[in-house]
Amino acid sequence: MNLPTDLKYTKEHEWIRVEGDVAYIGITDHAQKELGDIVYVDIDTLDKEVAQNEVFGTVEAVKTVSDLFSPITGTVLEVNSHLDGSPESVNSDPYGDGWMIKMSIADPSELDALLTAETYGGLVGA
């Protein structure tokens, strides 16, 4: 299982990568494998403030729909438009082309409560 050590993780299987004062967010390699083939990503929170642990969208796989939970509080600045035509990017490259949103960071201290790759790996049995 791919667990980049430069990312933080949530128990709900999202990852977050901080670049300056913005964060990129997506779902983990473990989550995409559990969901199976992803056919649609629905995110309607562009330009909206989302609280930590609040739903910012959904991801639809062949057999299920799953909520996406924000690891931090912030405003959604960008939705990955690449996913409109290629939702399978979440399966093939969950930490790269398959990122879902870019958001501002309202409270940097929230990052401290997130999981390291090692802790998340232990949670999912990696």
From TrEMBL:
UniProt cofactor(s): (R)-lipoate
Gene Ontology cellular-component terms listed: cytosol; glycine cleavage complex
Highest taxon of the lineage: Bacteria
GO biological process annotation, one example: protein lipoylation
Subunit structure of this chain's protein: The glycine cleavage system is composed of four proteins: P, T, L and H.
Stored PANTHER family: GLYCINE CLEAVAGE SYSTEM H PROTEIN, GLYCINE CLEAVAGE SYSTEM H PROTEIN-RELATED
Physiological role: The glycine cleavage system catalyzes the degradation of glycine. The H protein shuttles the methylamine group of glycine from the P protein to the T protein.
HAMAP family: GcvH (MF_00272)
Protein name: Glycine cleavage system H protein
Name of the gene this protein is made from: gcvH
